[in-house]
Amino acid sequence: MRLALLFALLVSLAGADGICLGALVARDAAFTLTPAFGVAALAWHLGFAAAGAAVFVLSVPKLTTDSTLALGLLALALGLFLPVLGVLGLALAVRFGVNHKRGDRRRPWQSLDPSVSLHAPPRVAHRNVVASDLVSALSDRSPENAEHRFQVLLLTRHLSPRIAISILKLAMKDPSDEVRLFAFSRIERFRASIESNIKTLTAAKEGAIEDAARVELRLAENHWELGYLHLVEGTVRLYALQNARKHAMEAIVLSPEAAPAHFMLARILLALAEYVPASASFYRAINLGYPRKRVLPYLAECAFRRREFDVVKPMLREVASKPEEHFYLSPVVDIWL
Amino acid sequence: MSRYGGPTLAKGATADVTLVLEGTYPFVSGGVSSWVHQIIRGLPATKFSIVFIGASPDAYEGMKYTLPDNVVHLEEHFLSEVPRSDRAVTRRGDEAFYQCSHSMHDALRGEGDLSRELQNIVVKLLADPAKHRDDFLFSELAWEQICDRYDATAKNKSFLEYFWTVRSMHAPLFAMAIIAARIPRSHCIHVVSTGFAGFLATLLKQAWRRPMVLTEHGIYTKERRIELLQANWIKDEDDVDTTTENASIGVFRQLWIRFFEALGKMTYEAADPIVALYEGNRTRQIKDGAPQDRTHVIPNGIDLVRMAKLREARKEGIPRVIGLIGRVVPIKDIKTFLRTMRVICTQLPDIEGWIAGPTEEDRAYADECVELTKSLGLEGRVKFLGFQKIEDLFPKMAINVLTSISEAQPLVVLEGFAAGVPSVATDVGCCRELIMGVGAEDRALGPAGAVVDIADPDATAHQIIALLEPSRWVAAQRAGFARVERYYTQKQMLDRYRSIYDKAIAT
Question: Which of A8, A216, B80, B132 pairs as cysteine with A251 (C-beta 3.0–4.6 A)?
């Protein structure tokens, strides 16, 4: 192929030389440039450009099923209007472009967002889709109602993953095979997505020395998410949370001033029912600049779990001062204040 | 002729039974394949011809079984090798055929006599399959019918997507018709699923005018439906009206599902008898369109003599090995087994988990399972053994675990019982019947293990740990063996199939 490309280039160069040669001959022979001579020179050039294009098209690998004519016309146009550079450029583009492999420049911590944002309140139900209605629809397990239950599962796509998964788990005990297996497949998709993130991030750890802390934090988030979404339960959930803690602590070792890592660790500890260290980590996150308003509800929860009810109230009062930021907590605030 | 070296019938020679198999024996190991092998070996006087239909030749490495001597013919056909026509030739198409096709589609929707329409279209199709294939691809009538049906059912969806969906789903049917003309004759057709194999068997029945037997292990239509609901290659959003709370799966997904349902109905229409492995599946077949009077139940059967040797090979005491014997594929939910092992190993550190089954069928899933094993810290505690003979497994196993999300009547559970291994299985197919018994007399034998919900590692682990308690384990072992000995013997099964074949061959 290399030889053929070289030949195509030479043919095209010859076409270009045809014009130059004609011009030189015309000057040295003191000819005046007649229209007939111009047409002959152009025909000479066109002929060589066409020959170059043909050789080029026949010598390059077949790129697509329909590209032969288009590629031929492109080569001809380039040979005609850019006698040297056109074919040379095309030859180089084909030579290096076809086999060029795009480098993997993805940054896993940028592309692999956990489906639950750590920095935003949980999503609420979409429009008219209300979780409690779906649960109630699933409770009629008669065979005649199986199709309706199946449709109900489709509606869970409009709920936040955590709520959807809790409903899908109910459906996994359904007597209808279709309902049960569809619920299973939806849950498996959530789970597979997180497990794939974990795999990618684990592989990325090797080559991400400068961003190791961020990779560790993302690993912690993904392990934590398995438990948070109730994709794993019991002993396996505990194991996932322990893994999450390990990665969060690693992230903190690598980047001790990273407030999000302390916040993540605190949430993991809260999930592990280790309330005292969880509170300490939440405060550390605040001290390192994590927005206090986002941490307060969790601090209040830690205090509640430790039965320090007198601490809970002032925290919730502070939360209540900005209801627009914690609207999803309003039922809790209403009860306490 | 088989490209894998199977036997070929001489021109003009016939077999007794043509087995039409889709994606199983002899190229894939598993429950259905073991059953087919058992039938062929168990009926040595019957000459079998095997027609295998697979997706792509790359998916199969070679034969997984040594063909018994009474297999006189083997041929394979792959759906990915549907021949392509390079040149489109303008043609009007066959008016009568497309009128039939129209009536057939109406009948499948319940508007007309399916049996009559099926007969009509199959006769026409078999008369000149290559012409009808080209008509389908290039004729004006085919185009008009596709356009009409698009307008009627999917008008607001992508026409391109609709067109190619219809083309790709129907093209193999014409290929089946071309194949049907070349298959050597036999006295009886036995198909082991609906789907493309069922359609081919339906064509053979019409072409040869011979009886057609259908045995369904799982319900093919149901399994396809589950696959299609999960399929990522169908780029189709579900239709959800959140104001009315009406929802339905996307049009193209529905098209595929209805296509396989139609193949199921056609196969049921042509087959007699229609055999299920247990009552639950027979009921499902009737619901899906099988005529009730043609349906029968013939459960799996176990070779007790062979299994007695495995019981004798067991050592004293309860081994510390929990095994899962099955292909490493999503439907077996191997990941739940791994999570179960995580729970067990936390409480009983000396327990080992074995996963014995081929990993080639879905390498990506197998890799995910290996990754999960590492992620759960189970390296060294869980072993992926690949395909193994049950003779090498059962004597060393304490409990035979099945975490499948869908099963029919898993042979491996019955084999385990016969080999002295109780089972913990998910509540799918007839696992509950096998383990707890069906009917008062059967239930009186006692539970041969435990039944759990799907995808519940905690509950599965809890039941396994409870079953490892010696007195309970011994009672379960005894109940399992008694159940197989009474209700699930190979002799009972073979006698019934022998009778079916004799009747069909004599017709």
Answer: A216
